[in-house]
User: What shape does this take?
Amino acid sequence: MEAKSIVIGVEGMTCDSCVQTIEQHVGKMNGIHDIKVSLEDKNAVIIYDSKLQTPATLQEAIYDMGFDATLADSNPQPVLPDTIFLTIPTQSALTSKQICSTLLKNKGIVDVKMSSDQKTAVVTFISSVINGKQIIQMVPGVDLNISAPEVMPGTWEDSRLSQASSVVLRLKVEGMTCHSCTSTIEGKIGKLQGIQRIKVSLNNQEAVVVYQPHLITAEEIKHQIEAAGFTASFKKQPRPLKLGAIDVERLRNTQSKGSETALKENSNVNDTKTVVFRIDGMHCRSCVINIQSTISALPSVTSIVVSLEKKSAIVTYNPNLTSVDVLRKAIEAVSPETFKVTLPDEYENIELFPTLASPVKSPHPALKDASQPLTQVVVINIEGMTCNSCVQSIEGVISQKAGVKSVRVSLSNRNGTIEYDPLQTCPEDLRSSIEDMGFDASLSAKAELPVTVAQPSSEVQLESHKTELPSKVSPAHLARQEPKTISKCYVQVTGMTCASCVANIERNLRREDGIHSILVALMAGKAEVRYNPAVIHPSTIAELIRELGFGATVMENCGEGDGTLELVVRGMTCASCVHKIESTLMKTNGVLYCSVALATNKAHIKYDPEIIGPRDVIQVIQDLGFTTSLVKKDRSASHLDHKQEIRQWKRSFVVSLVFCIPVMGLMIYMMVMDSQLSDAHAHYNMSDEEMEALHSSMVLEYQLLPGLSVMNFLSFLLCVPVQIFGGWHFYIQAYKALKHKTANMDVLIVLATSIAFVYSFVILLVAMAEKAKVNPVTFFDTPPMLFVFISLGRWLEHVAKGKTSEALARLISLQATEATIVTLGPDNVLLSEEQVDVELVQRGDIVKVIPGGKFPVDGRVIEGHSMVDESLITGEAMPVTKKPGNTVIAGSINQNGSLLISATHVGADTTLSLVEEAQTSKAPIQQFADKLSGYFVPSIVAVSVVTLFAWIIIGFVDFEIVEKYFLGYNKSISAAEVIIRFAFQASITVLCIACPCSLGLATPTAVMVGTGVGAQNGILIKGGEPLEMAHKVKVVVFDKTGTITHGTPEVMQVKFLVEGNQLPRNKLLAIVGTAESNSEHPLGVAITKYCKKELDSETLGTCTDFQVVPGCGISCKVTNVEALLYRKNKMVEENNIKNVTLVKIEENADKSVQPALIIDAELPTTMTSQKYSVLIGNREWMNRNGLLVKNEVDKAMVEHERRGRTAVLAAVDGVLSGLIVIADTVKPEAELAVYTLKSMGLEVVLMTGDNSKTARSIASQVGITKVFAEVLPSHKVAKVKQLQDEGKRVAMVGDGINDSPALAMANVGIAIGTGTDVAIEAADVVLIKDDLMDVVASIDLSRKTVKRIRINFVFALIYNLIGVPIAAGVFLPIGLVLQPWMGSAAMAASSVSVVLSSLLLKMYQKPSSEKLEFRARGQMRHKSPSEISVHIGIDETGTSSPKLGLMDRIINYSRASINSLFSDKRSVNSVVLNEPDKHSLLLRDFGKDDDTAL
Assistant: This one.
């Protein structure tokens, strides 16, 4: 027998008499030990015998009494019983059988076993229900067996028995998956009476148990392990623990000395001695704990400390009771009996010391016997807890560990305080146990050592027994005791142009002390930095970024929405005011930190939003007599619209352009003149001298000074302002980059322009010095043209970035700035309202939103009806109806009605903030691009230098090549100059053309546009990573309830149990619908909705005397249904008349028209409304009201219930008239979504906690062939992991709290927006609309975005791979040569092309359901049950069909073929699943698996 406890939620109790009724009724049931019903908590806690009762039968029993019963937890908790031994006197009047039966009749007694000699009864009972004294009083003459351990553990009798007759048992335990399983078994078995020690090994899948056979049997231990959900088998038969005869004798003697020995020891502490043993063969902490727990249980041992590192044990013992040799043997006998124990030589001197005060021993060893072991407290920091269920699971597992006395976990402080026995466990063990559960755990500084009494002897402690604990407190440990808190700050960064800038900032900041991580988002112009506030401050971080050449300001209001408050406090005069405010606030519950500055009049407060809100804090300060207001925050998304950069680059472009146009004019003029000259040279055979003279006579070639022509002088004048004003920005950035030993785009540009300018200037000076006759060829045209194209490119790029950031900026500007908070009295009467800043809205506030107003926070409607425009957030064009209970999103616009909402998310938690964070996170591809561009610039400079020298060498080796391919070559220039000029031109062109910008822009622009487009289509993608990961997904796992199905009940079928002429179909529907219209029960709502839809009417009849009996049904009187039916019939009759008059049968024509007219005439007279008495409910309700449920109706109900549906009976005027079948239905788009995903090449799996029948039925409707049913929430994670271990990328689609761990585990978690907050928090993608086609859309969008990113990369890379060699002159032999200005034009074009390519994503259209349906037409079909493999629970093996013989296969195959012939008929029938046929339900006869009609 096993006692279990279950909590059942009970709705519908009104007073204490209800409580008594339930307690009496259920208490009388067979197998119930105890029941406690609470009216306040609306629940019943029942302890019952699991062999006689199940949770379902108990729920049913309460349900049948007319209350609504729900199982709060489907898993009953085992109740651990206690045991007591009774001695039966030989002259007892009762036989042993009578005693057993007398005892078993009482509540709380689980089991009674008799010893073989019939003298002792072992009674197992539940201590919370009954105690030992009451049991003794039940049977006269029975006595409590003193030898049995009803006495306190730790006293002599207990230890004597325990050591004298312990047995070791080895069990093989299968089914353990993690350390939490081992903790469960150790905790459960360790608490049983008679178990002394248990060690469970996960690796060996075995348990070693030391127990007392007279208290508990090996079979019982095995049974208890199996009850915990594992399979156990005996490895070896139990064998007694080996203690020599002398040891047992010695232990027995202790018994005879009895309690005076104890008294003697307690009075005389100095009787103890200490010995040090050397122990070989210990491997781990479990050996240490094993030895400590076994030996410390010996009566003669006062304390023992075992050190694994020193391989030693220090034992303090009473020499009157035992000897060193016995202790040595006892340690060797400890399981697994592989320890070698020896005595060090100096052991005698140790005996000279009386008790040594070791740090882990109590100052009064005597206390040990009073069963008060010394405890220590450790505080462990725990990261990764999300809700109270995490807290409970940690407390549950850790409290079961050996040696743990108490555990308190705080979700808000993210830590756990554990009180433990250092002899049995240590902080490191506890920390690793928490980590094994999947949380990050670190030891805090608060690990307290216990107090020890300083005795002189403790100074003389020998080196050999410095115990384990002090050895742990190393300097490293002390250093670690400073708590490492990591804070997060956001810095707004301006002036970043490409990925190289991002890489530059990230690389430099990571080197700084105190910075843990940094994530820079190019698009949002934001850096998220995690840092150690003890080492570095946010303002220092911003300064570091500024040194790199970027603009940086710390964003005060970013990422701190929760729990921090910046206030301006007026009215402070001196330091005492500051102290008054700070001390009052720090005393206020919920305020974590407060600092007030008198100089700036500012207060900085951190608080726990769960306990206190910003308005409460302001109120506290105002109550002290000061005035306060919020520090105004910059709410505009100005840093996202790139306006300033657009202005700056536009200006730069215009300046460069003004000077560039004349330069280009001059250049074009020179090119034209040159070509004319070369023509003249070719046609008129002019001599070189004549040519030279003609050349110098041209206007631009006229020399102002020797060596300085008009052309060069004008070019120089035009180039200088561009070089200075146009290039100012580049020079600053390049200088800062080089200062930090990095190279970015600006370095390249500055190199190219400076080299061109300096080279030309130097050549000009040389010519003037030489008074050259022929004017040198200069490059003054290069810088203006380069700057024009680069500033144009940057300008366009920022315009484009502004465009892609638009969606984001729009989302940010959506936020309302003020909110109207109202106070409600009883019955929702408005008492007062006030306008406050949005930051001051607290969770749970009631906010009023007027028509046309924006919703300031996410919330739930509590009063009012309205239409709300959510188009900017969900992309849904139609306004959405909002009524009480619906959720609203911050930033959406209220249209026509006034609403009262209760705030659920405030500040940084709102949907909008979610989206912004999404767009600034980084895709893995982008991180690769950033790295790439870091190496890119140096390599381009290298290529440029190589090009320069290569051409100089080639030129001097073979001048003809240069002469042949160099445009504008003429003889008047010296060969050396031509070569050098040509080489410079090539190397400068290389510098101009190379562009890491396009590489850097490839990913962020696409990710930004992609997430923006997603948001407009109602798909919130939290960042680049999920956006990129979604296209790699191979398996999509769907949760069932609320994801594939609606999660709300709907009517699937109505069966009529009376003839149509007695009660017409429509009349029954009208009556039933009217009756349920007053009900708030989900089933009632479903029935009313169905009836309104069937009758095509918004209003129904009138309902009076409405009574509801929870758990049974309703009864009421219904009137006024005739008017409704009259309206409906009138339309039908009019159609009839039209049809009838078409029948040209002369003699019968009049007659055939007559009946319709008569009906028409009669109806108004019968409309003197009839009153119907209606009952709707379950069998029990009908029986109570004296209605008999026929056998076939009952069968039909059972059949539906078997398939997971609810069947409800309806009776009108005392006649059972209808059976209504209600179930959770599949969403209409689910089948198409599954089909489309499959056609995209993905595997689709259904995973649910529901039973396999329901799961199979749902799967067949949507076309899924692989189902995991009856999967517990905790196992969903394991399932996802299992799929990932097969090498598949998994997307999980879910909506509930139970899905959130799996959503977080999956490669991509997709949450349905109508689901719970926890799921939405855990997911990577949130579908705002409850539409499964958005799952298809999100994967499709991901594929398109990644495709776009790849195209962008190809653009950028190909462009560089082709451009650089052309610029270097590799393709010169085929006549391809580039001027530097062409290079810069091409470079600008590549950046712009990448951005435009990303902007093409804006054209993205979601795959429309109509198109997909058209494509899938005729190919979607329901799966037959045989096609679906259902896997139950966590095991992988599906319930596949057995191996069939050849004959069976042929029969099955032919049967399947015949079935497929009828599949059309079946598919018509299966429509009934969604909407019952309106007329012929009575006539239909379905197969066994379809709905059985009556």
Q: What stands out?
A: The first helix runs from residue 16 to 27. The first strand starts at residue 3 and ends at 11. The mean pLDDT is 75.
